[in-house]
Amino acid sequence: MPQESSVIGKDITRVDGVMKVAGAAKYGVEYSLENMAWGVGVGSTIGSGKIVSIDSSEAEKMPGVLAILHHGNTQKLYRPANSFEDNSRPGESRPPFEDDQVYYYGQFVALVVADTFERAQEAAFRVVVKYDARKPDVSTNELTPKDPPSIKNERGDVDSALGSGAVKLDVTYTTPVETHNPMEMHATIASWTKDKLTLYETSQGVVNHRNCAAEVLAIPLESIEVISRFIGSGFGSKLFPWPHSWMAALASKQLGRPVKISVPRSMMFTTVGHRPFTRQRIQHEIFQPTSMIADYVENCAEVTSMLYSCPNLRAIQYLIHKNIGTPTPMRGPGRTPSLFAIESSMDELAVKLNLDPIEVRLRNYAETDEGSKRPFSSKHLREAYQTGAEKFGWSQRNPKVGSMTKGNEILGWGMATCTWPAGRHNAEVRVSLLADGTARAVCATQDIGTGTYTIFAAVVCDRTGIPLDKIRVQLGDTALPPGPTSGGSSATSTVLPAIVKATDQAVSEVLRLAALTAGSPFEKADPKSLKMTGGRVHRQDQSPESGVPFPDILNLRRLSGLDGQAKTEAPPEAKQYSMHSFGAHFCEVAYDPGIARLRVSRWLTVIDGGRMINLKTSRNQILGAVVMGIGMALFEETIYDPRNGKPVNNNFADYIVTVNADAPEMDCIFLDYPDTKLNEYGARGIGEIGLTGCASAIANATYHATGVRVRELPIRIENLL
Ligand code: MOS
Question: Quick one: CA torsion of 342, 347, 348, 353, rounded to 10 degrees?
Fold first, then answer.
């Protein structure tokens, strides 16, 4: 039962915050196991071709070298079933060392294992690989689809509607390859003991990782434990396991000792995914490269069918295979690049029609989801536009290009819609109320830095009144009851119902025993007449102070604790609704024409995201996403060398991400409309929505300031000169 003085919806400080600041939170790479060896991967230096020979003789003679693994000398690995629904999806289906083929630059062709990192690194430089190289195909100018479209959404009669339209807009937008750059780099420590494999990982889905490992290595699920207690973010690159994890497992098995592989930043540009390039022509035709060995679809067509009211619509997407590493979801996959095109084109339409950009969106407002033909479970986008316009001062906007100035700078004001789907999956949670007055909640989901530990504690606190600092949460270990992947902004909405049910069960058990136990102040009472408030058991019609602390009941029974365990899944009724979060970004850019300097100078986002469980971390997610959106609009782009397919800017000096100096004064407002069709708290996820729409808001503001419409991200100085 929710407590009156609940923490829900307030600013809750992360329960793991002190541990993190004090350095007590241990990340995957930080474990040090006895007799541990180090592995360093050797990446291919060609973008396409095959391995002719691997000469490891010199490397083998180096001090401390224990093994050199490659396709010619290792045990074969298997390809996993690759099912997202069954939680067995790898980042890349092809296991390392499968054969002599090279599909992209940086593909692992060998692994050197030594007793120290430095010795492994030194020896890795001395492995001589000879290739039969072909010219790699990495061009994004050449995007000729060979296969039928991977997605086709169509309604109405598009061709005649295009012919008869009063205003026509036929424009093409592109978004570049972007590379995930979480603060914590990828790493694996694999440790076999007898028949058990333990993997210390940095993973957004320990259960999925474990299931994949079982299939790749062909060993039972029960003999694998994946541990990922703290994660320095992932942005999607850690959703699915990548080849280095299997290399560590192979090496550890072969050597009979733990093996650690830490993936350096440069290799994170090749072997752990990226957001693919997109070329999008409105009405919506999408061309998207993927790797030679995976049909990864960055679904840009999905949002097109539901965002605006539109009787005639076509959204069609083609995949083109290229010699680049395998793409993977990156924060807001599909909708983020898609909304750059759609929300920029809405702005172009507004300019053509001489209408306010908000007005164009209101005139095309979708009251229902016209794609799936279902009502929205809860949509307050109109209010998001209105609230944002009011707080930003939108009515002061002079629509004339370049008309608003401040000192030497020209100001531009732009806005864009943002949206992300809401979903819910399966989760199992165990909550224990313990005789020392504390509680414990456990689940094999993980906290990727978004605040999942705190969500667990907040809900247990809400249901029992036990204070936050007396609630211990354990996550990130497949030994615990199975929980969801932290992806698709669905972890919070997924785990909430299971925490509620498990906690309520544990409380019911305490109340049942309170009524059943000789010597209890509630002996022979109807358990239904009892409740727990502030951690105290009492009669419903009397005050909590009249009752006793719950450990008293446990102590009477000589019990160390009582458990509740619950498994929940998405309610079937949810299928009747189209569930999405919505919002609006309002942005100001300042352009100094004298030195061609463009900065984002002010930002406001309004989010209709259901009920926020923790206001503090919610705000953190939205503002963090906007900072990332500034990077997408102005800086981020992975550039490949056409000669060998190497990402040339594979480091923080050359791949530019937003820093503090680029981040303006920012604010965000949450509309408070709980989506009760989704779960009992009405909470949706908000990890991704903040990034969608950002880049178009900035491009629209840039047009307003400069009159230059940039349709190719990122926006560069040379576009504006
Ligand atoms: Mo997110 S791209 O589902 O980590």
Answer: 130
Query: What is the distance, to the nearest Å, from the Cα of residue 510 to the centroid of all Cα atoms in its chain?
Result: 38
Under a CB-based contact definition with an 8 Å cutoff, are residues 411 and 558 in contact? no
- The Cα–Cα gap between 425 and 571 comes to 9
Average pLDDT over the chain, rounded to whole?
A: 97
Best CA proximity match to 421, nearest among 678, 676, 205, 614:
678
CA of 275 to the centre of ligand 1 (A): 11
Q: Mean per-residue pLDDT for 657-675?
A: 96
Mutation pick for ligand 1 pocket among 179, 186, 331, 420 (CB with most ligand atoms within 8 Å): 331
Sign of the Cα pseudo-torsion (340, 341, 344, 346, in order)? negative
Ligand 1 site, residue 488, Cβ cutoff 6 A: yes
- Beta-strand relationship, 561-568 and 368-369: unpaired
Q: Which atom of ligand 1 is nearest to the CA of 333?
A: 2
- What residues pair up with 602 in beta bridges, in sequence order? 588, 665
Which pTM value belongs to this model? Answer: 0.97
In whole angstroms, give the CA distance from residue 421 to residue 692.
Answer: 11
11: tokens are: 């600013």
Q: Which structure tokens are listed for 119? A: 């010795």
The token duo for 630 is 């500034």
Per-residue pLDDT, averaged over 231-235, amounts to 97
Q: Which residues are annotated as catalytic?
A: 688
Cα 401 from Cα 389, distance rounded (Å) = 19
**353-362: pLDDT as tens digits:** 999 999 999 9
Ligand 1 pocket test target in 688, 689, 691, 692 with most atoms within 8 Å of CB: 688
- What are 171's two structure tokens? 């424009």
User: Rounded distance, CA 540 to CA 507, Å?
Assistant: 14
Helix (H, G, I), strand (E, B) or coil at 24: coil
Helix (H, G, I), strand (E, B) or coil at 506: helix
* Number of the ligand 1 atom closest to the C-alpha atom of 332: 2
